[in-house]
Amino acid sequence: MSNNDKPSFTDISTIGEFGLISQLTDNKVSVQPSTIKSIGDDAAIIRNEQECTVVCTDMLVEGIHFDLMYTPLKHLGYKAVVVNLSDIYAMNAEPKQITVSVAISSKYSVEAMQELYDGIYTACKFYNVDLVGGDTTSSPRGMVISVTAVGQANQQDIVYRNGAKKGDIICVTGDLGAAYLGLQILEREKQIFLEHPGVQPELEPSQYLIERQLKPEAQRGAIAYFRKEQIIPTSMIDISDGLASEIMHICSKSGVGAFIEESKVPIHPDSEKTAIDFKLDPITCALHGGEDFELLFTIDEKDLNKIRYMPEVFIIGEIVDAADGIKLHTSGGNIHEITAQGWNHFRQ
Ligand code: ADP
Ligand code: MG
């Protein structure tokens, strides 16, 4: 935002907590039949019928999880919702409702909160979920946002981390490493701006990577495809911390090992190029970058034909015995153990 385009600043104290809540949430119509009571009473009511309730929460702290120097509040609101929906999809469940709790310092105006909620409601609309409640309080410094998502699934459809078995095929739903590289670009441009405030950031050529960082999406299409094709993955997890960490979770919970083919791991051409610009190895970014919010899942071999026609899927490896470890077959023909902190492990 340039200086001559200053947004108006209405102090929240002029309308108060209740005024803020109603300004942010009034006149919204619920879309989920299971939403019986939304915002406006002591608690929301969700009717569950025969299904299981799936619940998850994520908290985002300013200065730790987000930097408002390069994160527009609208994107922050959107992402805060998406990261939670991603966890619900990772259980092969359908998200239905969310609650949003915020702690804010006096530096945030009503307009700033409105922007945050624009992003939150944009995500709600896109993913067909209702915002049914939350809490609003003050903080001595900065902002904290906590989103809780509620989903539903038939008990027999739920996919855990612990079901992978030898011979299963390992798949991911999209390219990896881009969100991490987007963050590197934003951090680089922030440093340049701090040192030379007059310099305009060079973000245009990196649009794809920056969007992967600032506006990630949850993989609702994958879950819809599983339902349509009657596929139930044997295990699943969303990629928030990087492929290495997530495959290790699946393997440790399932008591198995894994072979991953480096050449099969999807990496976007922009990620390849930018990794090299930063003197990073693209596969290292894919393994350890995180925040891509793709799904990593395993399927029984018999479902291979069904998965072949999935619109966005990449087969990257195979589940093996625990004794065979968790290994990466590199494009150069070497075999490396995958570890949690593997920076610069792979090529000397
Ligand atoms: P209580 O005093 O019972 O905690 P509040 O006054 O905090 O109630 O909240 C009133 C209503 O507004 C409740 O339905 C609550 O879930 C909702 N609400 C409060 N803060 C938020 C928020 N930040 N986002 C969405 N809903 C909120
Ligand atoms: Mg309250």
Provide the succession of SSEs: HEEEHEHEEEHHHEHEHHEHEEE
CATH topology of the largest domain: Phosphoribosyl-aminoimidazole Synthetase, Chain A, domain 2
Shape: flat
Second-tier CATH architecture of the largest domain: Alpha-Beta Complex
* Strand residue content: 15-25%
Count of individual beta strands: 13
Q: Which CATH class of the largest domain applies here? A: Alpha Beta
**Average residue pLDDT:** 94
Structural summary, described in words:
The chain is α+β, with helices and mostly antiparallel strands. The protein has 2 domains: 155 residues, 60s Ribosomal Protein L30, Chain: A (2-Layer Sandwich), CATH 3.30.1330; 169 residues, PurM-like C-terminal domain (Phosphoribosyl-aminoimidazole Synthetase, Chain A, domain 2, Alpha-Beta Complex), CATH 3.90.650.10. The chain has 10 helices and 13 strands. It has a 7-stranded mixed sheet, with helices on both faces. Strands 3-6-4-5 form a 4-stranded mixed sheet, with helices on one face. Helix 2 runs parallel beside helix 3. The longest helix has 18 residues. The protein starts with 15 loop residues before the first helix and ends in an 11-residue tail after the last strand. 40% of the residues are buried. The structure holds adenosine-5'-diphosphate and magnesium ion (MG). Adenosine-5'-diphosphate binds next to helix 1, strand 4 and strand 5.
